[in-house]
Amino acid sequence: MKRIWLIGGTEESATLARAIAALQFPCVVSVTTESATSLYPIAPSIQVWVGKLDPNELPRFIKKYNIGVVLDASHPFAVEISKNVIRVTQDADAVNPHPVAYLRFERPTLTTDETGVWSIESFEKLLETDWLRGQRVLLTIGYRFLSLFKPWQDKAMLFTRILPSQVAVEAAIEAGFSSDRIIALRPPISYELERSLWRQWQISTVITKASGSPGGEDVKRNVAKELGVKLIVVERPAIAYPQVTNSVTEAIAFLSRIINDRSARIQE
């Protein structure tokens, strides 16, 4: 039987993995950190693979694990893995002798229509504006984008909240954040804690990514409204997914069709 490749690391991917395990479909889940493995069920049909895949390694990975269908539930801003997997699954030569189906599981977006919430296309576009100048700014954007804000350390008072990992802390320090302007916490962040942190640092502007409710965007929106803080939401990168859903039921139905159809062909 062909395997499912679930590209994971998110809350939704854990939900999908449990549904896949319940059906006993063979599945390999890929995550980038060892700590993420705890999200997934211990089941005979589920194998968790830890590491970062080079684009050139993807065809080999697909063949090694006998992948028949990819369910991409990676983070909305993890665009490189999504782009590379779409490219490989659409390249018949790369995945011969059997085609590989692809489905993107995309968490719903939140609308930006309330007062005090500003939406912008990218970090680069944001830094072309003067929105941050003279402000006390909290960045809740992960560590990978912090280097973009290094030139702004002398134009605004910048704070950052990152994951409690060595690589994240080192990236924050390299971007010019002193230890008193870094807080390392693992989500989820409660409404009460979010509000307290903003008050403690007297934050006037918060920058976050359009990561939806699982990423705590809804909590930030509510706290911003209560405290009168400007919330800047950086939009998700635009990707032309071949197929996309935000429904667990639809995703599992898609997987079932692919797996059962290919199993039937083998039996014939």
TrEMBL record:
<dbReference type="GO" id="GO:0009236">
    <property type="term" value="P:cobalamin biosynthetic process"/>
</dbReference>
<dbReference type="GO" id="GO:0016994">
    <property type="term" value="F:precorrin-6A reductase activity"/>
</dbReference>
<keyword id="KW-0169">Cobalamin biosynthesis</keyword>
<dbReference type="InterPro" id="IPR003723">
    <property type="entry name" value="Precorrin-6x_reduct"/>
</dbReference>
<keyword id="KW-0560">Oxidoreductase</keyword>
<dbReference type="Pfam" id="PF02571">
    <property type="entry name" value="CbiJ"/>
</dbReference>
<comment type="pathway">
    <text>Cofactor biosynthesis; adenosylcobalamin biosynthesis.</text>
</comment>
<protein>
    <submittedName>
        <fullName>Cobalt-precorrin-6A reductase</fullName>
        <ecNumber>1.3.1.106</ecNumber>
    </submittedName>
</protein>
